[in-house]
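Known limitations

Files may contain more than one protein. Parsers should not assume a single record per file. Below, a two-record file is shown to illustrate correct handling: read the sequence, read the token line, then continue until end of file.
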Amino acid sequence: MKYANRITFDPEQCGGRPCIRHYRLRVKDVLDLLAAGVSEQEILEDYSFLQAEDIRACLEYAAEQVNHPVLMAA
């Protein structure tokens, strides 16, 4: 799945940070909840507008952000 249709960027919303489908819920907020041990089911219950695909899109987006070249010193 590609996150492009679920992760949105709007300079007028949340300072242009990546959000979920134009809602004022940042990708970072979802990742912070997951990192704190909150289950996907709890997140979906607390944010009724979210879908399971949105949470997977957040994880995919985060994984892509840390996939950068590593420079090795010679």
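...continuing to the second record:
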Amino acid sequence: MNAGKIIARLREEKGWSQTDFAENSSVSRVMIGKYERGEAIPSIEVAKKIADAFGVSLDYLVGEGINAHFDKKTVQRLQDIESLAPTIKDKLFFLIDTVIRDNKAKQAYTA
């Protein structure tokens, strides 16, 4: 997916018009339309404003990189987990693994 489609999808998920998004990102509505149609590519500075307005990383915005599927809140959580003591991390990962396993089992039985 290209950045323009990602921008349009994120904007629609927020329920913002292009004008609303322009106000929230300090990017002109005309340029937002051009980005969404693939007629222009935002500069790094503008892409940062766009990513900040949506609360996502630049990786997420362009759909590439190790963090491309994570919003900023998820990335921050992962960073916070990495700073925990090993015993606490082990307990947290055990809990996460248990929830994921149970969810997968539930999906398998309901499908």
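Parsers that stop after the first record will miss the second one. For reference, the second record is described as follows. Residues 25 and 50 are 6 Å apart (CA to CA).
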